[in-house]
Amino acid sequence: MRTYALYLVRRFAQFILVVFIGINIAYLITHLTPVDPVEQAISSVTMFGQSSPEMVEVMRKTLRELYGLEGSAWEQYVSFWRRMATGDFGPSLSAFPTPVSTLIWQALPWTLGLLVSSTLIAWIVGNFLGGLAGYYRKNSLLKALGILAMSLQPIPYYIVAFILLVVFGFLWPVLPISGGAEMNIDRQGFAFAASIVKHSILPALSLVLVGLGAWFIGMRSLVSNIVTEDYVTYAELGGVDRRRILFSYVMRNALSPQLTGLALSLGAIFNGAIITEFVFGYPGMGTLLVRAVNAGDYSLVLGITSVSIIAVASAILVIDIIYPLLDPRVARS
Amino acid sequence: MRIMQVLAFFASAWLVAQSALAQGISNLPREETIIIENPQGTITNPPWFNIWMVARGGNSTGLQQLGMDTLWYIDPDAGIDGVWDNSLAADKPQYNADFTEMTVKLRDGIFWSDGVEFTADDVVFTVQTQMKNPSMIWGPVFLASVDTVTAPDKRTVVFKLKRPNSRFHATFTVRWNAAWIMPKHVFEKVEDPTKFDFNPPVTIGPYKLHSFDPNGKWYIWEKREDWQRTSLARHGEPGPKYAAYIDPGPPDKRVILQLNHQLDIIHDTSPEGVFTLVKQSPTSQGWFKGFPYAHPDPTLPAVLFNHQVKPFDNPDVRWALALLIDIKAVSMASYRGAATISAIGVPPTGLYGKYYFDPMEDWLKNFEIDTGKSKYKPYDPTVGQQIAEMLRPSMGEQIPTDPKEIAKAIGRGWWKPNPEAATQLLERAGFTKQGDQWLKPDGTPFSITLLVEGDQRPVMTRAGTMIVQQWRQFGIAAKTQAYPSDFFPRVESGDFETAIGWSVETWGGHPDLSFFLDSWHSEFLKPRGERQPPRNRQRWTHPELDKIIEEIRTIDFDDPKVQELGQEYIKLAVREMPIIPLMSYNVFTMMDTTYWTGYPSADDPYTNPVPNWANTKYMFVRLKAAKAQ
To answer: Which CATH code for domain A110-293?
Structure first.
């Protein structure tokens, strides 16, 4: 037990270090970008409207003061970590003075709802079917599924998304192709929930179709290896029920690497699904991130990136912590 | 198995039943609602309606089109009742003799959406509040120009200016937007107007906010019950009861939504998207009945040279590069032929045919370049006609046959490609040719980097790629470089050699060119590395140009001499070729007549249909519900 506690402490220290280094790299990259939020803001004003030269000079100076961009690079860095220590990402520069955290909290539920559900569906269905295909290798239906999964796997995501868009949005227009819910709907009650589900069908389906193949193929090859192990052959010769062999002896053992993959996928969803959100006009972190990058809003970019770094690192930490509890072989090693 | 069949049946039935509602608006009658694309897309800060602050929330969400108002509007096309409209003002601006004072008379009977009367105090408050808070959009302009602003009575505002300024009224005159009037009774109660979100907005336009998406995807506006108490009422009652401004997503989706009659006005899409709509949707219409369908905005995409980088400071080099461009190929590559070309330094849009293109045609035909070895007349007046003939085999009847229509839709003449004259001009500039490669006077290869916006503006990027190809064929090591996010800041800081962009934007309906030209005066020129204020992005200065600008400053906005001086600028720009004008900025706005009719068009150009322009408020009074007819 003492060994496990030491392992936990060491692992937690690693987590802190990874988060610190990750956020620092993100800080450095966002501050090295040539896109200047003040210039982007001025461009948005002068692009169409009045642009007297005197006006631009005054505007530049006042915006720098307002956004807190005055001061040396070191002062800004220290001020950033001081804020981060209290969980404050500061104000967004493209939506000033709205706090970055408000914008993230507005977008996060949509991203979590869509990506957690589609990732879990793809993981469960892909692993289940992949496990069956690896065990019942002569079954024609499962073989056909394998071919289908392998055919879908290399198709670029945006092609799959676009095909769904054309089929269900134009040729047979039965599903909405834009937004997270119907416009002007009362945002309380069953109708709103039903509308969210309806609007998420196409984006979720596109993610499941593309994500499912990888889990299917991975699980099938893992199971194909495990079924040749002696203990499986012994169990079969011993007359153990085949379903029990499949689920308790084979798939359970094959599940460990897939669980790690799932944790990483779930951690990574905090970045949002940029192409999905763009193609289906779905609200979420991806759209927010792209808009922040284009506006040179490095407060917002840093906020989103930091959340993502913490989420991925936490997912790996959790997996590392529970692994020894799930798999006795890891605990022994 | 049977259970599965029953479930499948109900699922199919549900999907079919939902098909008509796949993209609907809940709780609003579709036949009373117009759905319009908001080109700003998803708004990052949806509840922010304080339009007087820089880059905080959305403005073309319907807010500036339907909720705001100001003193005057100039239409980029013919206008609903002439080009000039006194909106909140009762009359045109009245200046004193030396343009140091401007008096404005205001309309009677205009009310804010909360029932408070609009008065001169609102105008005074708008100016004074922004002067006190220079981080507000028009604060710096007012600080630079206004000495005092007073309201001697409820309907009169007097501006005393810090120095003579015959164009001060332009700050309150809508082209795309202008200084909007603030409701004093709302903002005076606010401690810090720069941090006030103005949610829900109190409007002075004919609509009020109905609802909006907390995620910034849509905004719905509802016609005010007292719409008669707004300035637009002089032109009639707005047709739609509701207007939804939405983010429909990428261009292909906009086309799909309009094919399904779920998006009445597409702000802009790809040329290919328009061709699809023309073929598949009999209810969709563009600005032109036939080719090129698009609305030519009063903006002039061009090859911008950085005059602070050698050898682009040399007019011989600039002219040589212009004579290597085949505009027909550029038109095909960029807009698939659906461009409206321009050889001169103003866009071929609005009433500019009448003001500038027609009067200057003979001068252009006779214009000569002297290369030192020979003289050439570079202007080919038949280029527009040639593009029309190129398109006719594939586009058939959609291509106009009347030369006047061709001139309006596709353009007039352009510079005839002339590699021989280009060679002579480059040689005169000290360039030499070694094998297939041109060398600069210092013996190094003549290379050009052309900045483009990449995916951010694909049409212009394709134009740039074609131009670079043509320069390469002549032996110049040219290449494009794409900067989708920071194109304009990079150009404005002078960090470029050449770029595809624009520095010419005009009123469209009015011949005065000071909207862009005033900022081209040498007094505003910055050294390379420092940011050049818009719009002299090419950093070109010329003593003759300064004289023209200074003379424009001393005459009235409506003085007939404005047009004469405009023509002087154009002649100078042809001789010097500071930028290579290409075409107007064509916007592929497509309008669906399933639910609404009466949209503006080239045949009835009463306003600009491009829906993010504030002038589109005039469209609302001409829109009629299709089912009611």
So the answer is: 1.10.3720.10
